[in-house]
Amino acid sequence: MLRPILAMFVFGLCPLASGQVSTYADVKAAKGVQLGAQELRDLMPGAKVVSRTREGSTRHWQNKADGTFSATTDGRGVSGGRNAYASAEGTWQVTDGGRWCVKIPWPRAQDDWCRYMFKVGDKYYGVGTLSDEAPASEFEFSK
């Protein structure tokens, strides 16, 4: 009886066992390290960004040093899973409080958010608030 319960926990109910991080509580459980304002200011200029939304869209852009970028998206999160490609000009900034803020006026809706950023292994996750139930979004950064 204990084996089926253990198997359900390890393979189905524990997000970290499957490599998924979906909330700030998961980020903390995975021992995520928060990036401070200076670390973000060092990382962001020139960074190539891949942003994966919880709804299923993948967006790409490269942060320019002047705080702007040109972004593209496959739009899957707003189209019921089908690709709905779009592009837009956006802006980014790092606040003194250590949040990375992005604005993108997509044709269908606008992204306008700020995230606290955490590194978990070789992945990055952003959360809007530091509350356990806050959703975490995955990001990739490269130069």
How is this structure best described in words?
- It is a single chain.
- The chain has 143 residues and is α+β, with helices and mostly antiparallel strands.
- The chain has a single domain (21-142), classed as Lipocalin (Beta Barrel).
- The chain contains 3 helices and 9 strands, in the order ααβαββββββββ.
- It has helices at residues 2-13, 24-29, 37-43; strands at 33-34, 48-52, 58-62, 68-73, 86-94, 99-105, 110-120, 123-127, 136-142.
- The radius of gyration is 17 Å and the shape is globular.
- The termini are far apart.
Would you tell me the structural class of the helices and strands? alpha+beta
Globally, the shape reads globular
CATH topology: Lipocalin
Total strand count, please? 9
- Biggest beta sheet summary: 8 strands, antiparallel, barrel
Low-confidence stretches: 1-18
What's the CATH C level?
Answer: Mainly Beta
* Helicity, as a percent range: 10-25%
Mean pLDDT: 86
> Which strands sit side by side, in order, in the main sheet?
2-3-4-5-6-7-8-9
The end-to-end span amounts to 50 Å
Strand content: 35-45%
Task: Return Rg in Å.
Answer: 17 Å
Please, how many domains?
Answer: 1
> What is the annotated CATH architecture?
Beta Barrel
Order of helices and strands: HHEHEEEEEEEE
Specify the number of helices: 3
Features:
8-stranded antiparallel beta barrel; 143 residues; globular; disordered N terminus; alpha+beta; 3 helices
